[in-house]
Every structure is written in C-alpha cells, then in structure tokens.
C-alpha cells in the first residue's frame, strides 16, 4: 500500500467520526464563525458574496461560517464518502447554499475560472502530495481577480513536544523531512506531508498567483487533547494565513 492509499484508508476510518458526531457538528454549524485572524484578511472578500470552492472540506463546519460571513455559495470537496454525505445532510438540514462533491484532489472538480475564492486549510495542505499540481489547479479554477486563502497549521508544529511547562523539539522529526506518520490526528496512521512555508509560497507563486499577504500566528487552529501547552503561550508560530490573488 502506498502513502496515498494509507492516508485515504486512515481518513476512511476517521470519516465515521463525522457520522457518529453528526448532532455535535450540526450544532456547531448553526453558529460557526471563522477565526478573527481569518476574517481580518477574508472579511472584505466575503462581504462581496463570492462563489467559493473548499477543497478537503472535512466536517464542513467552516462552510457554514463562510456563508455566514457572506459567501454566495460554497462547494466542498472531499474524497471521503461519509464526510461528504454527513456534511451534505447538515447543509440541507440548515438550508445552507452548500453542496458537496466527492473527489480525490488535485485535480479540482469544475470548469476553469469558475470561482472567486478557494478557501482551504485547518488540516488540508498536509494531505497534498503534489503541491505544484494543487497550486496550478487553484489558479485554473479562480477567476481573474479571484483569491486563494489558506489557514493552516504552521509547518513547525509537527516538531513541538506539547509539554504543559516547556516545549521540546521531537527527536524523531525534522522540519526538512518530506513526511511523517500522524500520531495525534483523527486520521491516526495517515501520512502527513511536511511542506515548508517556503515550499507553499513558492508553489503558489510558480502557479502565477500573486502573494498578497502571509501572516504567521502564535495561536494553533486546533488544540489536540484540549489541554494547554507551553507551545501555545504566544512565543512560537502555530498557524499561518496565506492570501494570494490571481492577476
Ligand atoms: C482535517 S480534515 C478537513 C479540514 C477541514 N477544514 C475541517 O475542518 O474539517 C481533512 C480532510 O481532507 C480529506 N482529504 C485528505 N486527502 C484528500 C484528497 N487527496 N482529496 C480529497 N480529500 C482529501 C479527508 O477526507 C478529510 O476529510
């Protein structure tokens, strides 16, 4: 079994969580909002009522947040059958203008220049094996003047030992490794790609998108275990937001 199949199988097991916890996700979807640090960059774009594509949409809760902030319509794409079905059930239950497609991305489904915003992240870029194909597909589906927005874990995060009093660097990890096997995420056993920040920005630029802003944040987008860790005390990068524009 290759890394892609191994990851897909792990997400297949994790997809059961989206079904099992349907009621919780539905409750979250009713009030979901994006992080203030996302809205800082995205708020003005969402207020224009964009058509949005959300690759690797997972539980879909963020799609409700995007609609709440102004998106005209959101198309979520995920390869897990259960993730897509349960997210569609929630969107339909709430009468939200969100549809879900099942596809292994990249390539992205849909025609050229069809969307105003590609929104992705919170555990998405790490599953992309071919970053250049991912960036090229983003550029393909965006209308001229459209934007890519990524809010993602900082690539330093897999190196942190999440102690309550101090942060160590894991002896078994390197910032420059190509990948590691996930041991904390719902998709335990999946192969996470370690794209450095330099690689992500370079792939986006090489696809012809102009970087508008790259912000590194001390806050994590997700706190495994829920407990406080010294790595989240404000001194280290835990997430980043990248906004790029198709000229
Ligand atoms: C952490 S989750 C989703 C992140 C999403 N923003 C959320 O908060 O739910 C990652 C999702 O990516 C999907 N995924 C991973 N690799 C994929 C691929 N190659 N094509 C499509 N979906 C993929 C998984 O099925 C999973 O639902």
TrEMBL record:
Q: Which UniProt keywords apply?
A: Methyltransferase, Transferase
Enzyme class, top EC level, equals: transferase
Q: Gene3D superfamilies recorded for this chain?
A: Vaccinia Virus protein VP39
- What GO molecular function annotation could you give as one example from this UniProt entry? methyltransferase activity
Enzyme Commission identifier(s): 2.1.1.-
The UniProt entry, under CDD domains, shows:
AdoMet_MTases (cd02440)
Q: Which residues form the Methyltransferase domain?
A: 55-146
Per the record, the GO terms for biological process are: methylation
InterPro entries per the record? Methyltransf_25 (IPR041698), SAM-dependent_MTases_sf (IPR029063)
- Protein name per the record: Class I SAM-dependent methyltransferase
Q: Which organism is it from?
A: Kineococcus halophytocola
């Amino acid at each position: 079994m290759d890394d892609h199949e191994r990851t897909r199988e792990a997400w297949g097991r994790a997809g059961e969580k989206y079904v099992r916890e349907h009621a919780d996700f539905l409750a979250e979807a009713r009030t979901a909002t994006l992080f203030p640090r996302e809205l800082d960059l995205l708020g003005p774009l969402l207020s224009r009522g964009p058509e949005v594509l959300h690759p690797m949409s997972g539980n879909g809760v963020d799609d409700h947040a995007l609609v709440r902030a102004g998106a005209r319509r959101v198309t979520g794409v995920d390869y897990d059958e259960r993730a897509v079905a349960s997210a569609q059930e929630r969107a339909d239950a709430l009468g939200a203008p969100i549809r879900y497609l099942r596809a292994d991305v990249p390539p992205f489904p849909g025609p050229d220049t069809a969307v105003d915003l590609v929104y992705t992240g919170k555990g998405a870029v790490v599953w992309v094996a071919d970053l250049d194909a991912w960036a090229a597909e983003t550029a393909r589906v965006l209308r001229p003047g459209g934007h890519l927005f990524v809010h993602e874990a900082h690539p330093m995060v897999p190196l942190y030992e999440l102690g309550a009093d101090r942060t160590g660097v894991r002896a078994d990890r390197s910032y420059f490794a190509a990948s590691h096997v996930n041991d904390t995420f719902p998709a335990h056993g999946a192969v996470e790609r370690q794209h450095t920040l330099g690689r992500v920005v370079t792939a986006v630029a090489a696809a012809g998108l102009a970087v508008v802003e790259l912000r590194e944040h001390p806050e994590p987008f997700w706190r495994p275990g829920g407990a406080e860790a010294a790595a989240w005390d404000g001194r280290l990068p835990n997430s980043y937001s990248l906004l790029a524009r198709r000229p």
